[in-house]
Write a structure and sequence with these properties.
Blueprint lengths: L2 E5 L3 H12 L4 E5 L2 H10 L4 E5 L7 H11 L4 E6 L4 H9 L4 E4 L4 H30 L9 H13 L6 E4 L6 H10 L8 E5 L5 H9 E2 L11 E2 L1 H4 L4 E5 L6 H13 L1 E2 L8 E2 L3 E6 L3 H6 L5 H7 L2 E4 L10 H16 L4 E2 L1 H9 L5 H15 L4 E2 L6 H6 L11 H19 L4 H8 L3 H10 L4
Parallel strand pairs: 1-2, 1-3, 3-4, 4-5, 6-13, 6-14, 7-10, 10-13, 15-16
Antiparallel strand pairs: 8-9, 11-12
Helix pairs in contact: 2-3, 13-15, 17-18, 18-19
Length: about 450
């Protein structure tokens, strides 16, 4: 439901407009002056403000200026009984969405309000589309020494066609690195095709990568090109490459060595020109040792490895990342969100087992649930606060409660240290895996 703020000092006019707008199922807050309107704008989010220009105290011009600063995504309609063409032009120049001269038809006002709200919907849809496109061209964020090293590697490897293996824990931004390599390469104007090897069922993987001919299997009613064909001339990212089934690993090796393959059910050889980038959060050397990954393929992929640092090893980048996510969610919500210095410090002190992805989720949650425009310590997730030793007012002084909190913090730190590997965490804690599992269940971790 659209929320509208009406500022009009004439009581009869105020009631008339409010009644008419509410008949269209819009929520309308009506106030008699600009000062009260400004106070409402500080506390509430509105899609539209309708304000008279001449009001005692804070007039319409001043309210418009205030609204543009405090709520820049709220549109504004100016009303006046003493207007002129110059006033209308001045209103639009100063940032108002529309201008209406009293006396006016209520139908005319409703049409104007409808038009503005429809434009807001269109803008939101356009933004969503732009965001989807922007994700494909997102820049890496951070100016720490660790990230400077990554930027240097990207700059070096991007111009070549060498295979790059991007390594790092889940949520560190491996796909962004691959995207950046593509965008800085000579193939930037061609396709960048992503394949998540963990998300495609094993039975469909071969057809997904190499395509199939008509009649190749039940349900193959027509020829279908594979991802390699679609990426011809461009770049392909094989994400979570460790999940690729062994039979397909041999086929991928051939593509890397000869740049040729056959469709499923086909006999003709297809030649392609595709640069291969791979990413994984798993230890491929360990996978080679246990037989789940081909050694020859590992050596072929590991031409240029790029190891992404976990967020806990580049904490100086947390403020920049946080502010970037805040800006993103502020645009989506139409509210300029901020974070208090105290809350920022808690974010910096946290260990982030889920890395940058976890930080983004924390900021999104806090920006939605925070009661006002400033995210405070109490708006952060309880697990994060407890891991940092946050103490709430009225906290229990029972030794058993204190021991339980400390034990949970130690469990979280051990899991973060072992990158979520429960077996290693149990060894580190000096307890059995069964005991660790029981404690994780008790404290609702994972």
């Amino acid at each position: 439901m659209a929320r509208i703020l009406l500022a009009e000092d004439d009581e009869i006019m105020r009631i008339t407009i409010q009644d008419r707008l509410e008949k269209h199922q819009w929520h309308v807050d009506a106030v008699p002056n600009g000062k009260e309107a400004a106070e409402r704008l500080q506390k509430e989010n509105y899609h539209l403000v309708i304000s008279d220009i001449r009001m005692p105290g804070l007039d319409g011009w001043q309210l418009l200026k205030f609204a543009l600063q405090s709520s820049p995504y709220t549109d504004f309609i100016m009303m006046t009984a003493f207007g002129s063409v110059d006033d209308a032009i001045e209103s639009l120049k100063k940032g108002a969405a529309d201008y209406i001269l009293k006396p006016f038809s209520m139908d005319d006002l409703v049409i104007r309000v409808n038009r503005i709200l429809e434009m807001q919907t269109i803008k939101a849809r356009c933004f969503s589309l732009e965001e989807s496109c922007r994700e494909m061209h997102s820049d890496l964020i951070g100016d720490s020494k660790a990230m400077d090293k990554i930027y240097g590697l990207i700059k070096q490897v991007a111009p070549s066609d060498s295979t790059v293996l991007v390594l790092g824990e889940s949520g560190t931004g491996k796909e962004l690195v691959a995207n950046s390599i593509h965008q800085h390469s000579r193939r930037a104007m061609n396709a960048f095709v992503r394949v998540n090897c963990a998300a495609i069922p094993e039975g469909l993987m071969e057809s997904e990568l190499f395509g199939h001919e008509k009649g190749a299997f039940t349900g193959a009613h027509a020829r279908k090109p594979g991802k390699f064909e679609l990426a011809d001339g461009g770049t392909m990212l094989l994400d979570e490459i460790a999940e690729l089934p062994l039979p397909l690993q041999a086929k991928l090796l051939r593509v890397l060595q000869e740049s040729t393959y056959e469709r499923v059910g086909g006999t003709g050889t297809i030649s392609i020109d595709v640069r291969i980038l791979c990413a994984t959060s798993k230890d491929l050397e360990q996978a080679v040792e246990n037989g789940s990954f081909r050694q020859d393929l590992f050596y072929r992929l590991n031409v240029i490895p790029i190891q992404l640092p976990p967020l806990r090893d580049r904490k100086e980048d947390i403020p920049a990342l946080t502010n970037n996510f805040l800006h993103e969610f502020s645009i989506k919500r139409g509210v300029a969100m901020e974070i208090s210095p105290e809350a920022m410090q808690y974010l910096i002190d946290y260990s982030y087992p889920g890395n940058v992805r976890e930080l983004k989720n924390i900021i999104e949650r806090a920006s939605v649930l925070a009661p006002d425009q400033v995210i405070k310590v109490d708006d952060l997730p309880a697990d994060l606060l407890e891991a940092n030793g946050y103490k709430e007012a009225g906290e229990s002084f029972l030794i058993s409660d204190a021991v339980a909190k400390t034990e949970k913090q130690v469990l979280l730190k051990a899991l973060a240290h072992t990158k979520g590997k429960k077996g290693e965490a149990a060894d580190l804690l000096g307890i059995s895996r069964k005991n660790l599992w029981e404690k994780l269940k008790l404290y609702e971790i994972y």
